[in-house]
Amino acid sequence: MTERLSDINARIDGIRQLGAVVNAMRGIAAARAQQARGELVAVDSYAGTIAIAIGRTLPLIPTGHEPSAAPRSARPALVLFAAEQGFAGAFSERVLDAVGTESAASEVFLIGTRGHAIAAERGVGVAWHTAMPSHSSGIPKLAERISEALYARFASGAIDRLEVVFSQWQPAHGLAVERRRLFPLDLTGFPRPSHAGAPILNLAPGPLMIALTADYVHAQLCKTALHAFAAENEARMEAMTLAHSQIERQLATLQAGQRIVRQQEITAEIIELAAGEMASRTV
After folding, report:
1. Are 90 and 242 in contact (CB under 8 A)?
2. What is the distance between the alpha carbons of residues 220 and 225, in angstroms, rounded to a whole number?
3. Of 28, 138, 228, 273, which is least packed with CB atoms within 10 Å of its CB?
4. Which tens digits make up the pLDDT trace of 64-74?
5. Domains identified in the chain and CATH numbers
6. Do the Cβ atoms of 226 and 139 come closer than 8 Å?
């Protein structure tokens, strides 16, 4: 009886320690997601400024020399933002499912250590991969590494198109996998100036457009990476919330059993004492 009670007490202590870990992970994920969402405002403003500059430069580019005029003779590139760590549910699986068999005909650039392991298990060929930073402050450096790898493949003629696939957290709806084309640029989406005055330039329109395009792609990579970073942490926070609820239920069950066993132990001791007292009176 006593050994059984000690086992229950040990299990209760172990579950409480696990609950403390789960709560800590949930708090860290919530803080990281909130920080990433705040930084998205700045990235949106940065990307919007570049988009305006591209829109004002486009009328100065000769017809046929726009970035969208690139020939399509090579493989497309897919940048997939998967999970960096575990305990995020089916985060990586949903991203890989979104591209399906397209990955076999594309150059896959995969972000996320956990996602890379899952892709290997599925037999998905990955041309390039790297880890997602542990803090959102490392996202700009990540975007630079992705850009460098992409530009090297563009320069070699291996790829001529670029799309990003990432998860975005939607309140009350959960995760949604998004897909966006980054190159060739969709020139119809850039705001054109309403006035006739040409901007004052320090560079020729061609080199300026190349530089602006690179900055715009970098900004969009930062934006999608931040969305993916926030979504992964939101998914982890949801998973830890479910784990916390399960821990609470198990703890309540064990505590109920603890009370029953303790009552049984007290009852057994009372019966033993009463039996001893009765035996002493009969002697």
Report:
1. no
2. 8
3. 273
4. 555 554 455 57
5. 24-239 (3.40.1380.10)
6. yes
